[in-house]
């Protein structure tokens, strides 16, 4: 299907031109002045519209440089565009950086509501830039009022970590001549810290992610949108091991609490729904050599997960406050669920549509089926002369849950169901005294919402399949004190999803629903060297000469108004360059990720 790839000259993507504005920053940057053009780092994604031209108006929302920004977020204000008729709002986030640094996590809040969570690319000495667009129309009521804007991007900036981040967020407003039916209210499940000029994210397990929420009595539809991601010892939670196997090898740092995570939403202590998260690989993940210039799937826009809580409206519309809690749990071989390491950042928003004719939504009691999940752990440790030489850990899990209730609004009585069906397999295989590692994980799930009437009474089914397989071999133990290290790594993973993005559909007032069909696969390998510049805490972000790899990605997307395909291939490493970039105005066939080692 993609015969005749277009071979691009390096110049095609080394576009953009770099001019240093002033001398206020460290010498490291001045050295770059006027030198190599910036390298574009990108996430492969279907464009949000045929053209971004023709905006009814534009507004710069954030323009800020995050340098030594640990604990000091950007705080600013937003006001809706004056004299501008618009329906669709798109945020364009543009980031540049020069120097070396780790990838950094960014969170953007309007008041106490999180709009966007992202990671940056890892910069290279000669500079990078990225542009990414996100449709934020679902937040329409927030975008039409004055807001405090808070963005964090905790960054270290000193003589070792020389990369600062220049961030510009522009809002593009389009008048698409549609009638919007946005949520009447967006209620945050967050720490509600904006008054203290802080982002409202909750940190787990060290805090409690609880909010008291009072829904309007005439709520007709309510959907919770959850953002959750791991940091530190939880950044790559899917390669953690069950805690009882932490000390199998004395030469590798393993993290505990299993490679399984469940993000839970509880309403008054009852489990309303769960997410078994997508294994995000941030731009330093597995091997930093894999992710320049093509970043990992979803790295620039960490996906939310939606749980329709409309079956709970009979309970929630009593005019009283109810406790909404977010939890993240791991597998524990003794108690089924257990703790996690530090930390997960979580927050959520309840999108509420009201029934203008209704006084109070009533409902039957909820029929819930929430059995405990099934887990099975198969461990196998091999040892020789008293030394553990290999470790194989296979964990499988499955879970089903559902909630059904009859709800009465001004338009009548109907039966609503929210149901989820999930399965998971994770195989971690350590050989060669733990220096060599293979991981294969498969997450499958479906979430279903059905209603016999009411607002958008169409059945919603979202299903996804997320296989990931990677290897990482360290020739000597990873040790920040040791110079001249080599990491040999490969990755193959996919995201295959058939979804009906419920919040956009409810916001856009549609009468027909088309599922979005996404199939994308990334495959790559890399040999990453650190020479004697490998100094403590910074070595892993500065590849030495000889570091080389390739990463390719197939991407196919189809929905009611987009058909899009793209194939890209890059040579990563010391001198990264995009060698193939081919776009298609149609869905393309995407080869499968090989996860046979998990079967
Ligand atoms: C996003 O912003 C960058 C930097 O200002 C700009 O170069 C790019 O064209 C913008 N993209 C869109 C779609 O407006
Ligand atoms: C950051 O980017 C903006 C927009 O491109 C530019 O005007 C500004 O000078 C840059 N700031 C720094 C410190 O480089
Ligand atoms: C979280 O809630 C639990 C149970 O209510 C309580 O024991 C614990 O002290 C709380 N932790 C924090 C940090 O508030
Ligand atoms: C071998 O691995 C087991 C399981 O992790 C561990 O309990 C034991 O201490 C290890 N033995 C040695 C010699 O490290
Ligand atoms: C780790 O175990 C190996 C094999 O038992 C042993 O030779 C080595 O000295 C140990 N290393 C450390 C740091 O304990
Ligand atoms: C460990 O990985 C290295 C580098 O990929 C490879 O050469 C070696 O054969 C592997 N050893 C084992 C026992 O798999
Ligand atoms: C690391 O490699 C460099 C050459 O790239 C060499 O000059 C240096 O001696 C090596 N250092 C160690 C500790 O092996
Ligand atoms: C070590 O790597 C750095 C960064 O890539 C490079 O600038 C330097 O020349 C390398 N040194 C040697 C001895 O290879």
UniProtKB/TrEMBL annotation:
| Record has Metal-binding as a keyword | no
Ranges for domain Peptide N-acetyl-beta-D-glucosaminyl asparaginase amidase A N-terminal come to: 50-368
Which keywords does the record carry? Answer: Signal
- The keyword Isomerase belongs to this UniProt entry's keyword annotation: no
Record-linked InterPro entries: PNGase_A (IPR021102), PNGaseA_N (IPR056948)
Lineage, top-rank taxon, reads Eukaryota
Q: Where is the signal peptide?
A: 1-19
UniProt name for this protein: Peptide N-acetyl-beta-D-glucosaminyl asparaginase amidase A N-terminal domain-containing protein
The top of its lineage is:
Eukaryota, Fungi, Dikarya, Ascomycota, Pezizomycotina
